[in-house]
Amino acid sequence: MITISLCMIVRNEEEVLAECLKSVSDLCDEIIIVDTGSTDETEKIAKEFTEHLFHYEWTDDFAAARNYAFEQATQDYILWLDADDILLPDDRQKMKDLKGALSFDVDAVAMLYHLAFDEENKPTFSSRRHRLVKRDRHFKWHGPVHEYLEVGGHIIESDIAIKHNKSRKQTHHEQSDRNIKIYEKRVEKGEEFSPRDLFYFANELKDHARFENAISYYAQFLQSKKGWVEDEIRACLSIAECYKHLNIEESELEALILTMKFDTPRPEAACKIGDIYKEKNDFNKAIFWYQLATTLKEPTHFNFKDESYTTWYPHIQLCYCYWQNGNENQSYFHHCKAKEYRPNDSRVNHNELFFKEYYIK
Prior knowledge:
The radius of gyration is 23 Å and the shape is globular. Mean pLDDT is 94; it is low at 170-174. Strand 2 (30-35), helix 2 (42-47) and strand 3 form a beta-alpha-beta unit. The chain is α/β, with parallel strands linked by helices and 361 residues long. The protein folds into 3 domains: 4-164, Spore Coat Polysaccharide Biosynthesis Protein SpsA, Chain A (Alpha-Beta Complex); 171-263, Alpha Horseshoe (Serine Threonine Protein Phosphatase 5, Tetratricopeptide repeat); 277-361, Serine Threonine Protein Phosphatase 5, Tetratricopeptide repeat, CATH 1.25.40. It has helices spanning 17-24, 42-47, 62-71, 89-101, 172-188, 195-207, 211-224, 229-245, 249-258, 267-279, 283-295, 312-324, 328-341, 346-360, and strands at residues 4-10, 30-35, 53-55, 77-80, 85-86, 108-117, 123-134, 140-142, 148-150, 155-164, 304-306. The longest helix has 17 residues, at 172-188. 49% of the residues lie in helices and 17% in strands. This is Glycosyl transferase. Keywords: Transferase. One of its GO terms (molecular function) is transferase activity. Residues 5-121 form the Glycosyltransferase 2-like domain. It holds the Pfam family TPR_8.
């Protein structure tokens, strides 16, 4: 059986750290906690779970801090988590099974990361990350912010899911404010940004409603022609979102169509084009794009997955559009399809009541 070092970097995580560690501590042979400057009860909580508590002077560099944590590990494999991550019971058992069965020739294990959830707590947005890596391969983190772990060799994919714990009181804006400040300091220093830096800085600008600046950095990223195709498509979708906030519809539509320059149409782009025509009451065109979305699948290499655009969303929009076009049967058909995916959604329930009252009359 392999042994596992859990490596974490933390700062002011008193609200979530205990729950994280309780969910995984018995599955690990060693827990490494690196504190980067907590002023709350984080260190006290960490000491309840491990003697291996280290202090690291924060230098606005997440990769450096994570690499320092990895350097303290002594077991066969390293598992990394953030303080607001947890393993639910089913995934704890899967992790236990993996630990007992994993072959030593495996260099890294990719696991699911569930980031958003519906009203029934089912995941609606997920990604994949290399969570368990072989220590003697000395894999390194790169990037001061939005860091990534560069791995290679024999990599396997697991259905183990890490859940992002949304009970945290700290808002997304408060978290990302730290990130954008790191980027802005780098801009002030005149640092040259990689294509990845350009993309993620643009994301931060968009999240802070600095839409024109975001568009500029997304454009620089696309002009580099050195990005991952999925990031290029995401950049176009984000440009469209920025133009939507700026109320520039023509440019929004152009950005959505531009996604198709990089690969086959994606369900999200198709739905958002449908949204534009729906808002203009051009229901025939809206129906075309929503119908297209129902036939599209996300590529297997796609690292991020938002299930709404391949499940309920196009159907609930088709329900409305067909009704407006006078096609009651097709409207009801797509209502039923949306209901299959989200039976407890408030919008689906509203439509359900509408159809019951309509057909009773």
